[in-house]
């Protein structure tokens, strides 16, 4: 991976960064962001809900802030293949390259649908207005590639051309926001070329219900190709948020509901769901790994993400664990790194995830502080007894 360098981070500094991670401000009084609308007529406008200081459930679940003392995705280019990425997107200032429109030509720095901007915000969003955290890898660079036409259509040729454009544009990771239900020699060849060029391709599995009752969804491409990291979504309960196809199912899971993302214009935020959202979170984790381990090729980055994934009992497909993926010493041996200060919990669906995590951190911090205070007082009292052995208790 030419042009990138490993960030030298002292172990003590990394530990300090983990300990210093504070609980996010409560956002209980903030209105819920609207769902990103489907722009059937005209373009998506600004959201009326400001960003505020909220942290979405997916980011609370993945906790990328705990990885940032080690890696923030610096010098990694992530290509986002969807509807383009708006240059006016909040939280992506200075992070977006001109890109390319493989459908109608030109650049891809505009986004009428808002989809590509949302995915880019998940991958590499900087801190937004009011301290909102959007992205997994806030120092990564986004290369937008438009593969969706004005009628919201996508073809195998557009996806193939988009992957080739991403490789030519210097991408280290490619994330697609969609797929097609038919295999294509051109698309398969483009994925092969990307793999040979040391580019990791991440794609969502089909999360659209089958048109035939009782049948699984159709297989999507390119996620069904073996070289591609196929990603499916999970809900707040940790379960897959959509049924898997018999073939071409996910290799990895990531949060696929409740993502808070910047709008294509303005400073407001929307929410988005779907397997494309999950793929974007996985691509952000891949960017963190590629920045910290520049010696690993795309295949080994893929293997590392899979080997360090969380595997609850009885769940065949693991959920991405960004911290373990970056910090694990020997992921091939199946050893996962447990994040300091984090105890796995089952998050009730009815409980607000952000508030629950905030309360848990505050309670834990209070217990630790109280323990340290008691120990300090005990030490002081013992010291006084040693200095005044004849003093009787009053």
UniProtKB/TrEMBL annotation:
<comment type="similarity">
    <text>Belongs to the peptidase S8 family.</text>
</comment>
<keyword id="KW-0378">Hydrolase</keyword>
<keyword id="KW-0732">Signal</keyword>
<feature type="transmembrane region" description="Helical">
    <location>
        <begin position="362"/>
        <end position="380"/>
    </location>
</feature>
<dbReference type="InterPro" id="IPR006311">
    <property type="entry name" value="TAT_signal"/>
</dbReference>
<keyword id="KW-0645">Protease</keyword>
<dbReference type="InterPro" id="IPR036852">
    <property type="entry name" value="Peptidase_S8/S53_dom_sf"/>
</dbReference>
<keyword id="KW-0720">Serine protease</keyword>
<dbReference type="InterPro" id="IPR050131">
    <property type="entry name" value="Peptidase_S8_subtilisin-like"/>
</dbReference>
<keyword id="KW-0812">Transmembrane</keyword>
<feature type="domain" description="Peptidase S8/S53">
    <location>
        <begin position="73"/>
        <end position="309"/>
    </location>
</feature>
<dbReference type="InterPro" id="IPR015500">
    <property type="entry name" value="Peptidase_S8_subtilisin-rel"/>
</dbReference>
<dbReference type="InterPro" id="IPR000209">
    <property type="entry name" value="Peptidase_S8/S53_dom"/>
</dbReference>
<dbReference type="GO" id="GO:0004252">
    <property type="term" value="F:serine-type endopeptidase activity"/>
</dbReference>
<feature type="signal peptide">
    <location>
        <begin position="1"/>
        <end position="28"/>
    </location>
</feature>
<protein>
    <submittedName>
        <fullName>Type VII secretion-associated serine protease mycosin</fullName>
    </submittedName>
</protein>
<keyword id="KW-0472">Membrane</keyword>
<keyword id="KW-1133">Transmembrane helix</keyword>
<dbReference type="Pfam" id="PF00082">
    <property type="entry name" value="Peptidase_S8"/>
</dbReference>
<dbReference type="GO" id="GO:0006508">
    <property type="term" value="P:proteolysis"/>
</dbReference>
């Amino acid at each position: 991976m030419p042009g990138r360098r490993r960030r030298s981070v002292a172990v003590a500094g990394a530990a300090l960064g983990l300990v210093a991670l504070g609980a996010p401000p409560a956002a209980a009084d903030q209105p819920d962001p609207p769902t990103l609308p489907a722009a059937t007529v005209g373009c998506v406008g600004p959201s009326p809900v400001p960003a505020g200081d909220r942290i979405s459930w997916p980011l609370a679940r993945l906790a990328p802030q705990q990885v940032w003392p080690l890696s923030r995705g610096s010098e990694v280019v992530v290509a986002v293949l969807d509807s383009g990425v708006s240059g006016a997107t909040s939280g992506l200032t200075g992070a977006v390259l001109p890109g390319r429109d493989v459908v109608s030509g030109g650049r891809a720095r505009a986004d009428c649908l808002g989809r590509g901007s949302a995915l880019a915000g998940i991958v590499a969003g900087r801190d937004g207005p009011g301290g909102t955290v959007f992205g997994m890898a806030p120092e990564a660079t986004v290369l937008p590639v438009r593969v969706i036409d004005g009628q919201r259509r996508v073809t195998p040729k557009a996806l193939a051309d988009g992957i080739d454009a991403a490789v030519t544009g210097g991408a280290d990771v490619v994330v697609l926001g969609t797929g097609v239900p038919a295999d294509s020699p051109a698309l398969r060849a483009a994925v092969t070329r990307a793999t040979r060029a040391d580019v990791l391709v991440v794609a969502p599995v089909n999360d659209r219900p089958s048109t035939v009752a009782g049948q699984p969804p159709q297989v999507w491409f390119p996620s069904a190709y073996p070289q591609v990291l196929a990603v499916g979504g999970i809900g707040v309960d940790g379960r897959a948020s959509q049924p898997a196809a018999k073939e071409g199912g996910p290799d990895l899971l990531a949060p696929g509901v409740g993502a808070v993302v910047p709008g294509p214009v303005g400073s407001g935020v929307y929410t988005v769901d779907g397997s494309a959202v999950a793929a974007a979170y996985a691509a952000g984790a891949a960017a963190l790994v590629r920045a910290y381990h520049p010696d690993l090729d795309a295949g080994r980055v893929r293997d590392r993400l899979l080997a360090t994934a969380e595997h609850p009992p009885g769940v065949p497909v693991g959920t991405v664990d960004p911290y373990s993926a970056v910090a694990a010493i020997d992921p091939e041996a199946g050893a996962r790194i447990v994040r300091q200060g984090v105890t796995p919990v089952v998050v009730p669906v009815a409980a607000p995830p952000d508030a629950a995590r905030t309360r848990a951190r505050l309670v834990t911090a209070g217990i630790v502080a109280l323990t340290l205070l008691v120990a300090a007082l005990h030490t002081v009292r013992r010291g006084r007894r040693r200095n005044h052995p004849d003093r009787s208790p009053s």
